[in-house]
Amino acid sequence: MVFSTPGTGFLVSANGGGATPALFGFGNDFQAFSAQKLFTATGSNITDVSFFVPGTAQAATSTAFGLVFVDVEVGGLSRLEFFDAGNALIYSRDVLVAGNQGLSFLGATVSGGTISRVRITAGLNTIVANGVLGNPNDDVVVMDDFLYAEPLAAVPEPSMALLAAAGLILLVGLAKLRS
Predict the structure, then answer these.
(1) What are phi and psi of 4, to 5 degrees?
(2) Are residues 136 and 126 in contact, defined by beta-carbon separation less than 8 angstroms?
(3) What is the CATH number of the domain that holds 19?
(4) Per-residue confidence of the chain (179 residues) as pLDDT tens digits?
(5) Structure pTM?
(6) DSSP string covering 2-64
(7) Of 117, 123, 70, whose CA–CA distance to 94 is shortest?
(8) By the 8 A CB rule, do 7 and 41 touch?
(9) Which of 16, 38, 59, 61 is deepest in the core (most CB within 10 A)?
């Protein structure tokens, strides 16, 4: 997985060898589902997740993705949007409200298709830096565990022109056989 954001980067709440996590400078605002590793974009509430074959730059797709959201207090502001290899939206869902310091899980699986990209919208507010919010009045949401199915190499869909040409060649071949 590769994470990107229109913001300025990402923060992780603490490193694995550290003591009690700092929780982005807001020690009483978040709880962790799994120790120490809360995650957030800085300067934006948007995070895009793209899949690649591990260890390569080759695009990949997955059949499942989900994550734990932390501190969803306002409905309709946090969501996941799933896109196929053609960048068409295939599924979108708002995260359920879990209240102050609450944990919410949202995920989806697809059958008969694949997920190429996931857009995560985490609340309305942003964390600009440790201890600094973009707006102290809006809901700030961070992320915990990410779960996904193994990314597999993306198989490009044949273009319509290629399919039409193949069909035409087949029809010409069948006509010659009949004559």
Answers:
(1) -140, 160
(2) no
(3) 2.60.120
(4) 899 999 999 888 766 665 555 666 566 666 666 666 788 898 999 999 999 988 889 999 999 999 999 889 999 999 999 999 999 999 999 999 998 888 999 999 998 778 999 999 999 988 887 777 888 788 888 888 888 888 888 665 555 566 666 666 666 666 666 66
(5) 0.78
(6) EEE-SSSEEEES--TTSSS--GGG-TTT---SSTT--EEEES-SEEEEE-B-TTSS-BEEBSE
(7) 123
(8) yes
(9) 38
**Residues paired with 106 in a beta bridge:** 67
Tokens of 132: 């600094």
Question: H/E element holding 109?
Answer: strand 103-109
Q: What residue type is 111 in one-letter code?
A: S
What is 60-88 written as a DSSP string?
Answer: EEBSEEEEEEE---STTS-EEEEE-TT--
Domain containing residue 25: 2-178
Q: Alpha-carbon Rg of the chain, whole angstroms?
A: 21
Only one residue has tokens 């957030």, namely: 40
Question: CB within 8 A of 73, min separation 6: which ones?
Answer: 97, 98, 99, 100, 102, 139
Residue identified by tokens 């997740």 is 49
